């Protein structure tokens, strides 16, 4: 007997009785997942910003009259000089242009902070929780404004002006928000680098962005461990002459190397600075920030976002997709180094005057109940995280969750990769108590903010599906030949027509920008992801197009295969790649992480093959199942399949750019295991 509960093929025992709609005669997981629908709770729809009827009406308007729609949305911002022309856009690579609200002027920090002060100066902007339990801070809007103005003056005194780049290498502490806002207050451009990155990764981004000032901390804390941020910063700037000054936040208070003349202490400099800094008027199309992609597929690209279009898209969509209402407490667990955090942890809440939770640490330290304790403490209403974290917490079972009162939760969000239905159901039932819609929002650094999303008061959930287009977004499923497909279809995820929040270029490499996103399918933006659309017009992201596996002429998406494997009761997580196969062209190679205490046996391998065969098709059954106690992920928690692909093809050298890899020993371990099996 296997040590876990199992059952006949095709029987979704894990969810039996829990599905709102039990489907008879389930043939395959594909069908089962598609027919599993979670309606919008009527009481939720009743007070939502957007219900089903409003969605239909607004979406139609946004497509038929994009300029009219976005003009109305742009009234959300406070402008210095109003724009007269809404858009001027063309995706033709020979005549490419994307300009929104171009002759308007504004200041981002005024929109994010100043305009909330009259009503909220004494109200909390941030509830901060430190890595160590018990260490916390509350930052009011008034305090935030004071710090932002002072730091803006410090930057100015260091010679930073309009268009200059400020690099920010800080942990998740309120000062990161201050640093971003101070930068844009003076018309400068921020580039935030994840504080878990090495000196080398930071240096690469400084070299590319030519940052003038670096803002960092003495040390950072994550999961009880100390990271030597200032030492990394010193190493990173040593050979980067663009950096003239380094501003150091005292986080741990440890003694760290300090270069007089170049380095300044944040607290001393801001205390000495004037508490008012006149905001600089910038053009709508002036750059707001540069952000490097997370590097799942190779060398990160420095995407450039401009001011007004980005702020309109991020600010208005954040409020709608999370259905935030005045007084709600919002928490995004994303690190500040990712686009998720830019748009929906920092800019979205700031633009709307919302109270947010910031947490410096990791979900598993000191134990697996840390996140849930924070939700209880701050009565969090909207909780937004990533599938990778959910899967790791699922491994710990329900006990850590049950210790805490999560009844304040109303909306849950997921982003970063397709959420496998198994994790979706756990999130929905165990964390959300079965009552919270899940906002599985699909977008990219390139798109600036959301493109596909089940707006919670409007669109019923289907697990694993990012569902429907956001306003103003025109998704197309495009065949490899470039034909736009109608109805239920499978193909390349493209978007037709511009939207205000999209990135305008790759820094220093406009050619690459055009070639990557606009040349493959003329007239459309190409995301690089695969997608399927079902008979209800719901979209499901199928993974990166480059990762699609072609077995004997059948195209298989990695996400579907991985979701099927992860639905096996013994499995915690899986990653699938196609390896060179003499007969089939490509074979299916599955790396499988088992749940705690599950034995790595030959029987279990055979059973996993059978499990996939029954749920998808015999073609999809993995040819090779390789046990992997951990999978190689980047710092955003995404699986680096290009490394797994090389290993599957017995190529153990030259993995390309591995600077975004979170833990190099994981790769060594998998190689050793692979070699042992050859
Ligand atoms: P790089 O472009 O350097 O390889 P990256 O694509 O991982 O890095 P991001 O821009 O942070 O960097 O991530 C965007 C990608 O994440 C999307 O293209 C998609 O593959 C995936 N993704 C994000 N959210 C979702 C979601 N809700 N459902 C499915 N996939 C998602
Ligand atoms: Mg990408």
Automatic annotation (TrEMBL):
<dbReference type="GO" id="GO:0019427">
    <property type="term" value="P:acetyl-CoA biosynthetic process from acetate"/>
</dbReference>
<dbReference type="Pfam" id="PF00501">
    <property type="entry name" value="AMP-binding"/>
</dbReference>
<keyword id="KW-0007">Acetylation</keyword>
<dbReference type="Pfam" id="PF13193">
    <property type="entry name" value="AMP-binding_C"/>
</dbReference>
<dbReference type="InterPro" id="IPR045851">
    <property type="entry name" value="AMP-bd_C_sf"/>
</dbReference>
<feature type="domain" description="Acetyl-coenzyme A synthetase N-terminal">
    <location>
        <begin position="55"/>
        <end position="112"/>
    </location>
</feature>
<dbReference type="InterPro" id="IPR032387">
    <property type="entry name" value="ACAS_N"/>
</dbReference>
<dbReference type="GO" id="GO:0016208">
    <property type="term" value="F:AMP binding"/>
</dbReference>
<dbReference type="InterPro" id="IPR011904">
    <property type="entry name" value="Ac_CoA_lig"/>
</dbReference>
<keyword id="KW-0436">Ligase</keyword>
<dbReference type="InterPro" id="IPR042099">
    <property type="entry name" value="ANL_N_sf"/>
</dbReference>
<feature type="domain" description="AMP-binding enzyme C-terminal">
    <location>
        <begin position="560"/>
        <end position="638"/>
    </location>
</feature>
<dbReference type="GO" id="GO:0003987">
    <property type="term" value="F:acetate-CoA ligase activity"/>
</dbReference>
<dbReference type="Pfam" id="PF16177">
    <property type="entry name" value="ACAS_N"/>
</dbReference>
<dbReference type="InterPro" id="IPR025110">
    <property type="entry name" value="AMP-bd_C"/>
</dbReference>
<keyword id="KW-0547">Nucleotide-binding</keyword>
<comment type="similarity">
    <text>Belongs to the ATP-dependent AMP-binding enzyme family.</text>
</comment>
<dbReference type="InterPro" id="IPR020845">
    <property type="entry name" value="AMP-binding_CS"/>
</dbReference>
<protein>
    <recommendedName>
        <fullName>Acetate--CoA ligase</fullName>
        <ecNumber>6.2.1.1</ecNumber>
    </recommendedName>
</protein>
<keyword id="KW-0067">ATP-binding</keyword>
<dbReference type="InterPro" id="IPR000873">
    <property type="entry name" value="AMP-dep_synth/lig_dom"/>
</dbReference>
<feature type="domain" description="AMP-dependent synthetase/ligase">
    <location>
        <begin position="114"/>
        <end position="498"/>
    </location>
</feature>
<dbReference type="GO" id="GO:0005829">
    <property type="term" value="C:cytosol"/>
</dbReference>
<dbReference type="GO" id="GO:0005524">
    <property type="term" value="F:ATP binding"/>
</dbReference>
């Amino acid at each position: 007997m296997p040590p876990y509960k199992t059952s006949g093929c095709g029987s979704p025992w894990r969810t039996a009785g829990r599905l709102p709609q039990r489907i008879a005669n389930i043939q395959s997981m594909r069908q089962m997942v598609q027919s599993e629908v979670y309606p919008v709770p009527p009481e939720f729809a009743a007070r939502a910003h957007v219900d089903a009827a409003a969605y239909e009406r607004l979406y139609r308007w946004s497509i038929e009259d994009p300029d009219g729609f976005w003009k109305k949305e742009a009234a959300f911002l406070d402008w210095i000089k109003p724009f007269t022309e809404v858009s001027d856009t063309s995706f033709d690579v020979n005549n490419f242009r994307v300009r929104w609200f171009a002759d308007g002027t504004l200041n981002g920090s005024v929109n994010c902070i100043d305009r909330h002060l009259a009503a909220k100066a004494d109200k909390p902007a941030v509830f901060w929780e430190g890595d160590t339990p018990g260490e916390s801070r509350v930052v009011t809007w008034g305090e935030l404004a004071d710090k932002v103005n002072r730091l803006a003056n410090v930057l100015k005194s260091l010679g930073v002006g309009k268009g200059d780049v400020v690099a920010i290498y800080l942990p998740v502490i309120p000062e990161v928000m201050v640093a971003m806002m101070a930068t844009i207050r003076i018309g400068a451009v921020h580039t935030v680098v994840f504080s878990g990155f090495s000196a080398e990764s930071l240096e690469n981004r400084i070299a590319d962005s030519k940052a003038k000032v670096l803002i960092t901390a003495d040390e950072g804390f994550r999961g009880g461990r100390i990271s030597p941020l200032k030492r990394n910063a010193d190493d990173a700037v040593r050979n980067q002459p663009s950096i003239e000054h380094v501003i150091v936040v005292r986080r741990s208070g440890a003694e760290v190397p300090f270069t007089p003349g170049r380095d300044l202490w944040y607290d001393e400099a801001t205390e000495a600075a004037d508490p008012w800094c006149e905001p600089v008027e910038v053009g709508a199309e002036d750059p707001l920030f540069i952000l490097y992609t997370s590097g799942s597929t190779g060398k990160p690209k420095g995407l450039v976002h401009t001011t007004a279009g980005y702020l309109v898209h991020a600010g208005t969509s954040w409020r709608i997709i999370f259905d935030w209402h005045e007084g709600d407490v919002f928490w995004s667990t994303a690190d500040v180094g990712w686009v998720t955090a830019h748009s929906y942890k920092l800019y979205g809440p700031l633009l709307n005057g919302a109270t947010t939770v910031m947490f410096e640490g990791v979900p598993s330290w000191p134990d697996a109940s840390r996140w849930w304790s924070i939700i209880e403490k701050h009565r969090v209403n909207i909780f937004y995280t990533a599938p990778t974290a959910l899967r790791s917490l699922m491994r710990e079972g329900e006990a850590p969750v049950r210790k805490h009162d999560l009844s304040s939760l109303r909306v849950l969000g997921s982003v970063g990769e397709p959420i496998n239905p198994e994790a979706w159901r756990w999130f929905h039932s165990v964390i959300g108590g079965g009552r919270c819609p899940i906002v599985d929002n699909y977008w990219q650094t390139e798109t600036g903010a959301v493109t596909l999303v089940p707006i919670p008061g409007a669109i019923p959930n289907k697990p694993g599906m990012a569902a429907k287009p956001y306003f103003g977004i025109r998704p197309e499923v495009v065949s490899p030949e470039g034909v736009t497909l109608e109805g239920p279809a499978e193909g390349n995820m493209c978007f037709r027509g511009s939207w205000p929040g999209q990135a305008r270029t790759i820094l220093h490499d406009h050619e690459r920008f055009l070639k990557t996103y606009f040349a493959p399918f003329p007239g459309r933006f190409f995301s690089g992801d695969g997608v399927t659309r079902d008979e209800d017009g719901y979209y499901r992201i199928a993974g990166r197009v480059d990762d699609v596996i072609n077995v004997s002429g059948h195209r298989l998406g990695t996400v579907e295969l991985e979701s099927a494997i992860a639905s096996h009761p013994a499995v915690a997580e899986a990653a699938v790649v196609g390896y060179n196969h003499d007969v089939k062209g490509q074979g299916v190679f599955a790396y499988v992480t088992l749940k705690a205490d599950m034995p790595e046996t030959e029987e279990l391998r055979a059973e996993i093959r059978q499990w996939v065969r029954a749920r998808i098709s015999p073609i999809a059954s993995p040819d090779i199942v390789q046990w992997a106690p951990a999978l190689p992920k980047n710092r955003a928690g995404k699986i680096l399949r290009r490394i797994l692909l090389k290993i599957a093809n017995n190529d153990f050298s030259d993995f390309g750019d591995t600077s975004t890899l979170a833990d190099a020993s994981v790769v060594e371990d998998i190689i050793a295991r692979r070699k042992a099996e050859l």
